[in-house]
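Sequence in, structure out.
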Amino acid sequence: MEFSAAICGAAVILLLLHYHLLRRRHTAKLPPQAGGAGLILGHLHLMSDGAKPPHLNLADVADQQGPLFAIRLGARQVVVVSSWKIAKELFTTCDMAVSSRPKIRAFEHLSYNFAMVAFSPYGEYWRELRKIVNAELLASRRIQQLSHAIIPAIAQSIREIYSRWAEQNDDVSGQVLVDMKKWFSELNLTVILTAVFGKTFRAGESGAGEAEMRRCRAVIREYFHLAGVFAPADALPWLRWLDLGGIEKRMKTTAAELDGIMEELLSEHRRKGFSGEYTPQDFMDVMLSTVRSSNTLTDKFDENTVVKSTCLAMLLGGADTSSVMLTWALSLLLNNRHVLTRAQQELDSQVGRNRRVTESDIPNLVYLQAIIKETLRLYPAAPLGAPREFTEDCDIGEYHIPKGTWLMVNIWKLQRDPDVWVDDVSQFKPERFLTTHMNVDVRGKDFKLMPFGGGRRICPGPNLALHMLHLVLANLLHAFEIRMVCDDAVDMTESIGLTNLKATPLELVLFRRPAGQRRQGDGSN
C-alpha cells in the first residue's frame, strides 16, 4: 500500500514537472527582433554594408534594442550579445551548447571543409586537435622556446631600418620612412613561419624571398577579409548555385592558393624526414608524427588534410592578429603622445639605453602592459569573434534561444560598457589598468575584457600573442622616436573582415633614439 502511494506521488510530481516545462516552453520569451529587416534578406545589410564594419552596425542596434537582440540573415536566426554578464552566462552555464560553429560558406571553403581547428564543429575531432595545439605550440614552455625565433627576428627587423639609413644618408642619425603595417606583418610572419614550419623568408635577402613574403602577406589578408564575409547562400541556401557577387569563387581561389603554399611546405618536410636530414623540431614535424597515431583525427579526414589545415590555422592566427594589434597600438600612441612619452620613459628607466629589451624585462614594464590591454579593449583583433551555433535549446536570462540559432558576441561593444569602464569609455587611457582595473585579465577569465573570446572555444593563442605584442612594441619604442609624416591625427578607420585591420596605411618617420642605440641596431650584445 505504501509502495503504491509512493508510485502515485512520484507520478503526480513528474506530471506537474512535465506540465511546468511544457508551459514554460510555450510561454518562453524570444529575444527582441531588430527593426529594418528586408523581406527576403532580413538584416544582411548590417553584415555587408560597405560604409561601416558589421560590429559598428550591430553596436548601433544594441543602443536601441539592448544587450541581447535577434537579427535575421535571410532564413537564419542570429542572436547578438553585447553584455559581459550575458556573455559570462553563455560561456559558463551554456558553454557546451554554444561551442560549435555554423556551417557557413566561408568556413567550408577556407578551412578544408571544416577540418581546421578554428572552424570545425564541437566534438572529439576538435578536442583532439585542440589538445595537440595547446601542448605542442601554444603552451607557455613552448613559447619560451620560441625565443630563438622572436628575439633574432626583432633584431633583424631593426637592423634593416638602420641599413636603410646607411643607404640614404652619409650619417645614419637621420630619419627613414617606414610602412609600419608592412613592417609588423613581415616580422610576425617571419616568427610564425619559423615556429610552425622551420622556414624563414626575409624581405631584402633575395628577390625570391621578398616575392614569397609578399605572396604570403597578400593571400593571408584576403583570407581574413573573406572569412568575415557572409555569402548570399548563407542567408538563402537555395541561391548557392548562383554565387551572387562571385564571393564563393574568390573563397575557392584563396583556399587553393593557400593550399598550394601548404602543399609545398608539407612536401618539403616529408622529403627531409624520409631522407633523415634533420631531427623533428617545428610544429609541422609534430603534426606529421602525431596524426599518424591518432584514429580520432584520421577517421574524420585524411592525414595530409589534418596536417595542412592545423598548420595553416597556426600560421593565419599568429601572423595576422598580432600585426593587426601592433598597428592599432602604435596608432593609438601617436594620437596620444603623452602616453608614448611615458612608455619610453619607463623603458629607459627599467631597461636603460645600452641593450635591447628582452623577455625578462617585460614583467617590469607595467605601463607597457597597460597599453597593450587598453589596445585590446578598444580594438580587439576579432571584434565579433567567429560565429557560433546553439546545438540545444537554452534559456539566457529572460529569453529562450532555440536550437540551431547562430550566436555572435560583439566584443567591440561589450568592452566599451560604461557601467564597467565608467568614464571616457572610448578614450585611450592605459592608466585605468594601473588603478581601477589593474586586476582585469585578458585571457578569458574576466568577461569584462575578452579580446580572445571565452569558454572552451576561446582562442588558444593569448600567451603567444601577448608575448609578441609586448616584445615587439617594447623594442620598437626603445629603439626609435616615431613621428607622423604630417601633423594630422592618425586615421582610425576600421576595415571589414574577420579581423579589423586598420583600413588606411600607417607610414611613419622613424628617428634613432640617442645614446646606446648603435649597439642595439648593429646586433651587438
